Amino acid sequence: MQDSLAGNGVIRKLFIGEARLYRDHLLRLDADSRHSRFGGGVSDEFIRNYVGTTFGLSAIVHGFFVDGLLRGAAELRPLGPTFAREAEAALSIEQPWQSHGVGSALLDRTLLAARNRGIKMLHMACLANNRRMQELARKFAAELSFDFGGVVGEVTAPRPTPLSVLREVVADNCGFATAMLDVHSRMLKLPSQQGSPR
């Protein structure tokens, strides 16, 4: 089902036409959050190019939305060809929404998507000083190995079940309905914004 947390926040899958929302979210990350997400400092141009390829690489992105704005995201990116058995997970959460359970909820949805696609090993790479990501990985029974000042968490995903597949289908349908309501809401606000004095 659709997750609701941090007040009026909602977690749902991003659709292919919503790449702009993902790009804008990544561009809004503060310097520390951007550094943690990408393992170093990256430019705005790098982020634009990165997002441009994300949805074409069979990646699945779940987003945390507050009032229609994407404030956090979890990306599941297969490593290798279609039907790969390994994938990488990466999380990004804007600073005001960190340490409020958003990362746990996003990773839970990512693990469900990985499970339903037969992914056996999920890699989460983060810097050695990224304590939040390490604690999150430990919470999901990850075994962490330290190497060259970084951390790699590996989570073995269980096999899919009819219930896990149904859970994802229901969540996707609820997410699609929420996305359509957000679009409709923005369209209704547009005429009033155009008519307002400047």
Write structural notes for this entry.
The chain has 198 residues and is of the alpha+beta class. It is built from six helices and eight strands; from the N terminus they run ββαααβββαβαββα. The chain has helices at 19-28, 31-38, 44-54, 102-116, 131-139, 162-195; strands spanning 3-5, 9-13, 60-66, 69-78, 86-93, 121-127, 143-147, 150-156. It has an eight-stranded mixed sheet, with helices on both faces. Helix 4 (102-116) crosses helix 6. It is globular. The termini are far apart. The relative contact order is 0.15. The model has no long low-confidence stretch (mean pLDDT 79).
Helix amount, in percent? 40-55%
How does the helix and strand content classify structurally? alpha+beta
Distance, first to last CA:
42 Å
Q: What's the number of helices?
A: 6
How large is the radius of gyration? 17 Å
Portion of residues in beta strands equals: 25-35%
Strand ordering within the main sheet: 1-2-3-4-5-6-8-7
Q: Characterize the largest beta sheet: strand count, sense, and whether it forms a barrel.
A: 8 strands, mixed
Instruction: Please give the number of β-strands.
Output: 8
Low-confidence stretches: none
The helix-strand sequence is EEHHHEEEHEHEEH
The overall pLDDT, averaged over residues, is 79
Shape: globular
